[in-house]
Amino acid sequence: MAGSIQAPVTSVDEGRVALEPIQLVAPDGTPTTEARYRRDHPPETLAWLYELMAVTRALDTEFVNLQRQGELALFASCRGQEAAQIGSAACLRKTDWLFPQYREIGAFLLRGITPAQMGAVWRGRWHGGLGFTDKCVAPISIPIGTHGLHAVGAAMAAQRLGEDSVTVAYLGDGATSEGDAHEALNLASVYNAPCVFFVQNNQWAISVPVSRQQAGPSIAHRAIGYGMPGIRVDGNDVLACYAVMAEAADRARRGGGPTLIEAVTYRLGPHTTSDDPTRYRSQDEVDRWAALDPIPRYRTYLQSVDVWTERLEHRVETRAARLCAELRDATINTPDMDVGELFDTVYADITPDLQAQRDQLMAELAKEA
């Protein structure tokens, strides 16, 4: 019932979380024995998931290339996390709201946000993020964990409006170490909000390993403390992520309240393009996780069920090339921004402090001209 307060999970058995993540496709591409969730989607759906993952990887690579060539100031790669993003977003309705961090380009692609729109964010344009809300996607959140509260607020608003939409907060393992995430989880549970917390545990919060962020068995195990279900899923298995999110969203939609999902995955690249991960993690570790790459795993599975074809691969490559070209064109052929926009578009009328900062910056730039 909308607005009702759920009875908390009170027993250890009731709130027990399995340490072994849910997995439907094994690392070698074969089906697992997991029988609680379905994997028998129509061939069109299976192919669609592969296309989205592969195109996300291609766009990610193009973004990194553009940054290395000086066209972008910064970029946060999602390489290795495509299955978690695509699987979790693909099962949702278009009216379900996504509250992303800054690494979810797979979810953006799925919702129809264009490469040019994504690129404007990383170019630092004042209109970066415009159009996202048209697709029920909140603007990218750079502050860590704060958007979880926004997701809960939107979920509570949907309750009061009598809507059956669900909100999804995309968090990283590092975000769960922030107070904002704790407040969001607690608030969602107390008010039985239709919100799913999807934590992409990519093992590193910049340079801090997840082992130094918690003393408990897993991130999902924290769910019992909030009185909500917690589940671990193989974040490199797109079908498992799809199944687990579909279950959590359905539960929320029926008034069952929030769920905490921990998708166990790995950030194959640096935290951002300004990061040097060789300073804090070994190549052996990266190689071990690279062997679990979600895209070749899923391709092997599709081959085994006679869905993958050369025609599908050609379609994927063609779409990837087209979108990468659109991204490059929108980035390179867009005029450099007027840095004054950083100050002029904050308030309807610029404040004295901002005006002083603007004048100081313009004076400094004039010296370099």
Can you describe this structure?
There is one protein chain. This protein is α/β, with parallel strands linked by helices and about 375 residues long. It folds into two domains: about 45-335, Thiamin diphosphate (ThDP)-binding fold, Pyr/PP domains (Rossmann fold, 3-Layer(aba) Sandwich), CATH 3.40.50; about 340-369, no CATH class. Helices cover about 45% and strands about 10% of the residues. A five-stranded parallel beta sheet has the order 1-2-3-7-6, with helices on both faces. Strand 4 (about 205) and strand 5 (about 210) form a beta hairpin.
Short description:
With 369 residues, this protein is an alpha/beta fold. The protein has 13 helices and seven strands. The protein has helices spanning 43-68, 82-90, 105-110, 115-123, 147-161, 179-190, 223-226, 238-253, 283-290, 294-304, 310-332, 341-344, 352-368; strands spanning 97-99, 167-172, 195-201, 204-205, 208-209, 230-234, 259-264.
CATH homology superfamily of the largest domain = Thiamin diphosphate (ThDP)-binding fold, Pyr/PP domains
- What CATH architecture label of the largest domain applies? 3-Layer(aba) Sandwich
According to CATH, the fold-level topology of the largest domain is Rossmann fold
Please give the domain count: 2
- Give the averaged pLDDT, no decimals: 93
How many strand segments? 7
Beta-strand residue fraction: 5-15%
Radius of gyration (CA) equals 21 Å
C-alpha termini separation: 63 Å
> What is the overall silhouette?
globular
Low-confidence stretches: 1-14
CATH class of the largest domain: Alpha Beta
> What is the share of helical residues?
40-55%
Number of helices: 13
H and E order = HHEHHHEHEEEHEHEHHHHH
> Biggest sheet, strands in spatial order?
1-2-3-7-6
- Main sheet attributes: strand count, strand direction, barrel closure: 5 strands, parallel
Structural class designation: alpha/beta
